[in-house]
What we know:
Elements: E1 2-7, H1 11-22, E2 35-41, E3 46-48, E4 53-55, H2 58-70, E5 75-77, H3 84-92, E6 97-100, H4 109-112, E7 119-123, H5 135-141, E8 146-153, E9 163-170, H6 177-202, H7 234-243, E10 250-254, E11 257-266, H8 267-271, E12 288-292, E13 296-300, E14 305-313, E15 319-320, H9 321-326
Parallel strand pairs: 1-2, 1-6, 2-5, 6-7
Antiparallel strand pairs: 3-4, 7-8, 8-9, 10-11, 11-14, 12-13, 13-14, 14-15
Helix pairs in contact: 1-2, 1-6, 5-7
Amino acid sequence: MLRVLYGGSPEASAKTLELILKDSVMSASVENEHYKVVGVLSNPPAAKGRHSELVPTDVAHYASIWNEARGDDIAILTPEHIKAEEREIIAALKPDVFVCFAYGHILGPKFFSLFKHGGINLHPSLLPKYRGATPVNQAILNCDSVSGFTLQKMALAIDEGDILYQQETTLTGTETAESLLNLYALHGGIAITTLLRKIAITGLLPSSVPQTGKSSYCSVIKKEDGKINWNDSAEKIDAMIRAYTPWPGCFTTANGMTLRILKGRDAAKIAIQDNTVPKNTSAVPGTVLSYNKQRGILIQTGDGVIIATELQWQSKKAMDYKSFMNGARNFIGTVLE
């Protein structure tokens, strides 16, 4: 029986864990499978909300729900750091392989020595492109036409391990970071279950190949990265809005108040089908041009027009563009900054 320790924290990673658990011997609907999840490794609970209540990660939360519903005893480990004591606890679980998706910690040789088959990482890019923490965001920001995910053998150097499996995805230019990460959580999870079955049956990790081609890296995203520069093109701002959904989100200033642009499209993508929508004007970048009841709020950029369809004033609820305009009668003509 192949024993699996799963590492991850955010919602997308919990979706992958769900697929793995439902394909394991721990699922009543699965027969003759040969692996089980003996533990999950996740970040510690974080303080959230007005009262700073400690809330577990999505992965830890899902594992606890599974335990309660199925009567299983998946060990839920949420250490701040993995030191000797934590390694002893993990070793007692007798795991054979570590499977990781968005755990967010650098792991050392003493950790990997606990696993007969080492570690397998689901990375949401076509390695060696976009090594690092924000590959999905970077692919959208760069307006890539093709992206994908990689299953790699974990190495001490970040995202430099050999490739076990890759799958390409054609991008349409409508994806958000959230939707694309969830897609890879699903497709990557299916690929992981296939891989785990092979290891369980053969007792061996499938063959892998070294990464080839030019490597590139993505930087850590900061909250201030969501600030819109209206001198940028509509295409770039469109990509920003999608790349920074759900975090950090894109924002601007209107008459001294912070305004978040939650959803928007480059008008050039719509003007092909609707000739009432201008692709560009000579107005000052940031100018709120007009309100199109069928499309949204039109805003001039440095090159092209953005159509905002969902907005949110600071400390207020998000609104669709029609509801927003009902309470912003003098918004047309405003120059956003």
